[in-house]
Amino acid sequence: VQLVESGGGMVQAGGSLRLSCAASGRTFSNYGFRWFRQALGKEREFVAGISWSGHNTRYASYVAGRFTISRDNAKNTVYLQMNSLKPEDTAVYYCAGGFTGAPDDWGQGTQVTVSS
Is the pLDDT of residue 115 over 90? Predict the structure, then answer.
């Protein structure tokens, strides 16, 4: 399985970015996706998750109302729309996927930098 993130970059506080994660290498029925992030010197933390159908989503409290996770199953791609970005959102963002429990697969990460 390959998960390839894209869309990271540098943006000013208050700006927006959309991350994409393209999945390949298997059938993705019943496969959920999540986004995690890891800031320099900190532990990796959960950001958002979405079910196979896309009907169920969940968000960490520190991004709820600003970030939106979505998926296009025809393209095997999951997205993370990030609005009202803050400097504390600066991190490497990782796409992860799996069926139940802990993620089975991880992408290589994409850097997001928010300047004040």
Answer: yes
For residue 10, what are the contacts with CB-CB under 8 A and spacing of at least 6?
113, 114, 115
Residue pair 107/79 in contact by the 8 Å Cβ criterion: no
Spatial distance between the Cα atoms of 111 and 98, rounded to a whole number of angstroms: 22
Closest CA to 109 of 95, 88, 89: 95
79 neighbors 88 (Cβ within 8 angstroms): no
Q: Give the DSSP H or E segment for 97.
A: strand 91-98
Of the pLDDT bands very low, low, confident and very high (cuts 50, 70, 90), residue 82 is: very high
| pLDDT, tens only, 5-48 | 999 999 999 999 999 999 999 878 889 999 999 999 999 999 99
Cβ distance 36 to 47 under 8 Å? yes
Where do the H-state alpha helices sit in the chain? Answer: none
In the block, tokens 């850097």 appear at 111
Sign of the C-alpha dihedral, residues 40, 42, 44, 49?
negative
